Amino acid sequence: MADFTWPGEQLIVAAKEGDVEAAAALVSGSHPHVQRFAYSLCASPQDAEDAAQEALIILYRKIGMLRASGALASWMFRIVRNECLRRARLRLRSHGPVPDTAVPSFEDEVLQRLEADRVAAAIADLPADQRRVLIMRDIQGHSGRMVADALGLSTAAMKSRLHRARTTVRRALQETPDSAQGAFHD
């Protein structure tokens, strides 16, 4: 059975005071926890390995900055999370924008417009209270707390309306209108 305990306080204190052997033991003892957390957060196993290694390097170099011994786990998890996010942003940037030379076909443009029209119609069909929440949260990108405050709702009520709105739009988009289906079949 795996050991799920973090290194003890004495080891952390010794590492903070500059004991090189204690620092090495601290890194070694933290490795399984850091790695498990990285695998649960990062987009790929390679990113998880890299993020875990980076976090352990930071632990070794900056253990003296840790304020409280009991904060080791949360400190390491924050480092891993930030490293996974950094790697995800790099991956998005590396793919870059589509070059201007790629011109969508007329057919693709028509299909995109039809889909956009379907989404707009599904949103327009929502009850006003759900539509406002969906637009503010998903289209305008406001935080849940800000949407709730702006509409005078509790966070729970805002989340409930947002869930109902998303579900209704999803169902509307999954339905295939009979008229459109009939137009393409003989």
Q: What's the helix and strand layout?
A:
Blueprint (H helix, E strand, L loop, with lengths): L8 H8 L3 H22 L3 H18 L9 H24 L10 H19 L3 H12 L4 H8 L3 H20 L3 H7 L2
Helix pairs in contact: 1-2, 2-3, 2-4, 3-4, 5-8, 6-7, 6-8, 7-8
Nutshell version of this structure?
The model is unreliable at 178-186 (pLDDT under 50). With 186 residues, this protein is mainly α. Helix content is 74%, strand content 0%.
How does this model look, in words?
The protein is mainly α. Helix content is 74%, strand content 0%. It is built from nine helices and no strands. It is elongated. Mean pLDDT is 80; it is low at 178-186.
Key terms:
186 residues; mainly alpha; 0% strand; disordered C terminus
| Main β-sheet description | none
Number of extended strands: 0
Strand fraction band? under 5%
Count of individual helical segments: 9
Structural class: mainly alpha
Distance between the first and last residues' Cα: 64 Å
Return Rg in Å.
Answer: 25 Å
Output the helix-strand order: HHHHHHHHH
Cα shape: elongated
Helix content: over 70%
Question: Any low-confidence stretches, pLDDT <50, length ≥5?
Answer: 178-186
Give the integer mean of the pLDDT values. 80
